[in-house]
Amino acid sequence: MELLSGGEMIARFLKDEGVEYIYGYPGGAALHIYDALHRQSDVKHVLVRHEQAATHMADGYARATGKPGVVLVTSGPGATNTVTGIATAFMDSIPMVVICGQVMSYLIGEDAFQETDMIGVSRPIVKHSFSVKHPSEIPLILKKAFHIASTGRPGPVVVDIPKDMTMPNEKFEYSFPESVSLRSYTPPTKGHSGQIKKAVDLLLAAKRPMIYAGGGVIMGGASEQLTKLAKELGYPVTNTLMGLGGYSATDDQSVGMLGMHGSYEANQAMHHSDLILAIGARFDDRVTNDPDKFCPSAKIIHVDIDPASISKTIRADVPIVGPVIQVLEEMMGLIDDAPARTNQDAIASWWKQINEWRQVHGGRYDTAGDKIKPQAAVEACWRATNGDAYVASDVGQHQMFTAQYYKFSKPYRWINSGGLGTMGFGLPAAMGVKMNFPEETVVCVTGEGSIQMNIQELSTCLQYGIPVKILCLNNGSLGMVRQWQDMNYEGRHSNSYMDSLPEFKTLMDAYRHKYVEIRTKDELDAKMEEAFAMTDQLVFINCYVDPEEHVYPMQVPRGSMRDMFLSKTERT
Amino acid sequence: MRHIISVLMENEPGALSRVVGLFSQRNFNIETLNVAPTDDPTLSRLTLTTFGSDQVVEQITKQLNKLIDVVKLVDLTEGQHIEREMMLVKVRASGAQRAEVKRTVDIFRGNIVDMTPSIYTIQIVGESDKLDGFLHALSGMHILEVVRTGVSGIARGEKTLSL
């Protein structure tokens, strides 16, 4: 058996686990590990400019592939700088392994230089965490970390490694653990057949059914199964913000996104439905609006791999705990064998009703005036990328406009911080995607507020040649904050305006990236195409958009799903 | 409603903080809590009492089960069970009070486990209500210190919480 130091074991394990890139930043407690990485070439380390960006890069990779992203940082500030990124991944159930250096084990608790109790700090935002007590434990602990991060409901796992666990001269036997079993962790592998049968009976008898599909469909690799089931049944499908692309937005049966900024038809259809099939979704408060007024006549079938997600906010009538892919397949089998359906007339009139709702708002926005509407900019981006790009987004109005107007037709393409709403997520997430899919178009849709939260990563893009496209919907203000201030604070724009934005052109020059500016409607498509044609360059597209624009529809606070503002002057 | 949740978990550093942290993180309450290793040294048993609606308690048990360190758990209040709590009470008692305290301890089937000419230290074991009752019975006395272990419990009959 091979003898390796703790640091070498980490590098070697990552290779054996099939990890190509890790993202991180060195520092004292991690130096033995960094030295071990330097002496091999299988695992490539990407040096970011701030540890938060390392977590978002790993996260972007994970969202685009379904595989865990890996982060390596030092103790103390290195570790605490990852906290926002870990919380982002936790809220959206993204697999991630964060390896943190730690001070020497004999110094722990003595307030040593760069000591932070990272296990304690990260506890509420990790799926699990490990502290290494002996170098020989490293392979098995890392295996457990990857296993826990990527199975069941995925999530981030922190591995805290004191510096003396990685001493170069202390070598121990290494072997790659091919498998791992944990007596206290057995994620479900199969939904309850009786429940699935019950669900199918309800589905086949429903008169006003809705399929409500979340991020679990994407992370569970079940888009194809969902599509098959929806097609077979002929029922309308709505996706959550996290689930976009899980069912093609360009398909006839898609009624778009639901929830706070969901489509009129999706929210109306949910409210009036008699049966909701929720798959890999968690009835988030941004979906349900007031839970007491949620879909009053609907029975609810809830399929999720996490039992704690079921009946947490909305009581399920038929709970099904299991992997969505397996449950959907079993449902499909039962539907195939089912006798002729008797609800076809009801379904036809349900579609008639939905098609009427589609005419009410239909994603319209005011196209008058000289200013570029942000919606139009997103639509132009969709055209310029043939609707086929990987789109990472920051957080705010631009995120909602992208969710509404970039019609995702494939899973894994929409990369956004849905649960935590982390500004600064977009650029590094896009970078993580682009490094792993160099041939694909990867765009970060952002605003001039969000982009400045991790703008230092332009330097990382230069170092590694990461030609992402940054579409900055520049409205000179924190648009979503401003919208709320318009709606709820009589237009008092407290601190939502920045009057000393950098010259983005000069900034791009400084980082040797390209810059395209769009100021008028008539140049929108041409400039967008020009930017996306520079495939081997990072291009910052500074698109000046109408600062007065609001995101609509928008649910009325504490209302039911169907209570919406449809424009600045209309509400349901 | 009051629930007694008994948890078998890995006897590892950090496991307890995960359980306790979960309660504050998710806005659940803990009324009492105790924890100790079991006959299997790799496992600890933690018992806690909490108040909440059925829906809240369902969430509590699900969220506890999600913790990787938690191997198994049971809500003892769902079935027939035995619960016990121990209390040590230090009272100042002199003169005629000494006989009265002694009599009260006997009624509650407690034990005097330490004494000085002016102090009795009493041990009482039972359900929490009984402990409350004992303190109530002593309310005329000068109680110096009260310490309770929190509830521990076990299911009646064949049911066990074990691997």
Automatic annotation (TrEMBL), chain B:
InterPro entries: Acetalactate_synth_ssu, Acetolactate_synth/TF_NikR_C, Acetolactate_synth_ssu_C, ACT-like_dom_sf, ACT_dom, AHAS_ACT, AHAS_small-like_ACT. It catalyses: 2 pyruvate + H(+) = (2S)-2-acetolactate + CO2. Keywords: Amino-acid biosynthesis, Branched-chain amino acid biosynthesis, Transferase. One of its GO terms (cellular component) is cytosol. SUPFAM superfamilies: ACT-like. GO terms for molecular function: acetolactate synthase activity; acetolactate synthase regulator activity. The keyword Amino-acid biosynthesis applies. One of its GO terms (biological process) is L-valine biosynthetic process. Pathway: Amino-acid biosynthesis; L-valine biosynthesis; L-valine from pyruvate: step 1/4; Amino-acid biosynthesis; L-isoleucine biosynthesis; L-isoleucine from 2-oxobutanoate: step 1/4. CDD domains: ACT_AHAS. Residues 4-78 form the ACT domain. Its EC number is 2.2.1.6. It comes from the Bacteria. It is an enzyme of class 2 (transferase). Belongs to the acetolactate synthase small subunit family. Catalyzes the conversion of 2 pyruvate molecules into acetolactate in the first common step of the biosynthetic pathway of the branched-amino acids such as leucine, isoleucine, and valine. PANTHER family: ACETOLACTATE SYNTHASE SMALL SUBUNIT, ACETOLACTATE SYNTHASE SMALL SUBUNIT 1, CHLOROPLASTIC. Dimer of large and small chains. This is Acetolactate synthase small subunit. The lineage of its organism: Bacteria, Pseudomonadati, Pseudomonadota, Gammaproteobacteria, Oceanospirillales.
